[in-house]
Design goal:
- The protein is an alpha/beta fold.
- It has a single domain, classed as Peroxisomal Thiolase, Chain A, domain 1 (3-Layer(aba) Sandwich), CATH 3.40.47.10.
- It has 13 helices and 10 strands.
- A 5-stranded mixed β-sheet has the order 1-5-4-2-3, with helices on both faces. The protein has a 5-stranded mixed β-sheet with strand order 6-10-9-7-8.
- It is globular.
- The mean pLDDT is 89.
């Protein structure tokens, strides 16, 4: 069987800039920053964080005992939105639809709270082993919808959402599934915030990725999900994944290989698995966390592969959404491919220009432990495979 062409037919996203993609794009145009110093974790960190608007989902701000319920509720809301956009569940059998979601924090807060209150009870370890399995999230979400095809969870640090989308792309392209919902999402919690703080990588001011005075990360919550379908099916595309690179360099538990070789390998893989060349790439939505070693390694990898390529990071505005970052940034990259003015506005400060004749863009996600992913995306207008 020949490999199938795929298409993206629906997107849904939320972060500190907005509860839907239109709100997010509007604030990106205005170069608004979603991070705030007045957040629910003020007693834990001085760093600004990117909080979502939970009221827009009919939720209170999640307590330690309600984080996972909030994750389930928000992802379910996104999938309902995808159904409205695509009528996915009306067009396919449940066995033809899959679900792949990336998350790194699911179960952590509730497990630690339960452990601290019940640590003398041996049954707590059985509870913890279940709650800290990201697969439980997939099981609960899939059971709410007619989703019975191949489904799995991804937990590869900050590349989780991008890898979830890449693996969904391969599953549809291979014919394993006719359609797949994929993406990533994380909520902030005290364990994650204290963990990053212990690494001394949180910026106590608004983050400034790729700037000479960069000083670390602004953590945030949010993410996105998309629908990927086989291209021969009827629904109109809003874009395409045309290449996917993934690698694990294993250089260090938290630092990337200093010269960016693992990152470079991943971007090259995405291009090699497509019909496009490096000269076709219009811009790169970089991982760009704001830490000195990560930004330096990524800049070196980009310079080694491309000549005068425009690049930026949307984390300056959204904060770093952890497992949700790669999915959210893939959606924003797709939107920027369709909207010349969006990335022109973002790039003004970098004094870079965009060649609008180039058809594709890269979205990079590079996580702890050298878990790297690159998605090569094109708008429906630029698709020529």
């Amino acid at each position: 069987m020949l490999p199938k062409r795929t298409k993206i037919t629906g997107v849904s996203a939320s972060c500190c800039l907005g509860s839907n993609i239109d709100e997010i794009i509007t604030k990106l145009y205005r170069k608004e920053r979603g991070q705030t110093f007045n957040h629910r974790f003020k007693k834990w960190t001085k760093s600004p964080l990117g909080e979502m608007n939970f009221e827009s989902f009919g939720l209170d701000k999640p307590s330690e005992s309600a984080c996972d319920k909030s994750v389930n509720h928000i992802i379910s809301h996104w999938i309902e939105d995808l159904q409205e956009q695509t009528r996915l569940f009306d067009r396919y059998q449940p066995s033809e639809i899959g679900l792949i979601i990336g998350s790194t924090t699911y179960g952590i807060e509730e497990t630690f709270k339960s452990y601290n209150t019940s640590k003398d009870n041996p049954s707590i370890f059985n509870f913890a082993s279940k709650m800290m399995q990201t697969g439980k999230l997939i099981e609960e979400i899939a059971s709410r919808f007619p989703i019975e095809g191949f489904s799995t969870a991804v937990s590869t640090a900050c590349s989780s959402g991008a890898i979830a989308i890449g693996e969904a792309y391969l599953a549809v392209k291979s014919g394993m599934l006719k359609a797949c919902i994929a993406g990533g999402f994380d909520l902030l919690n005290t364990v994650t915030i204290c963990g990053f703080d212990s690494l001394q990588v949180l910026d106590n001011d608004l983050c400034n990725p790729f700037h000479k005075n960069r000083n670390g990360i602004n953590l945030a919550e949010g993410g996105a999900v998309i629908v990927i379908e086989a291209d021969e099916n009827g629904h109109e595309p809003i874009g395409h994944i045309v290449g996917y690179g993934v690698s694990s360099e294993g250089y260090h538990p938290t630092h990337p290989e200093p010269n960016g070789k693992g990152m470079e390998f991943t971007m090259k893989m995405a291009l090699d698995n497509s019909s496009y060349k490096s000269s076709d790439v219009r811009f790169i939505n970089a991982h760009g966390t704001g830490t000195i070693p990560n930004d330096k390694a990524e800049r070196l990898s980009i310079d080694n592969m491309f000549e005068n390529i425009p690049y930026y990071t949307t984390k300056q505005y959204t904060g770093h959404c952890l497992a949700g970052a790669g999915a959210l940034e893939a959606v924003l990259t797709l939107k920027a491919l369709d909207d010349q003015n969006l990335h022109t506005e973002i790039l003004k400060e970098k004094k870079m220009s965009i060649n609008s004749d180039k058809p594709v863009a890269l979205s990079n996600s590079f996580g702890f432990g050298g878990s790297n992913a690159s998605l090569l995306l094109t708008s429906s207008k630029g698709f020529n495979e």
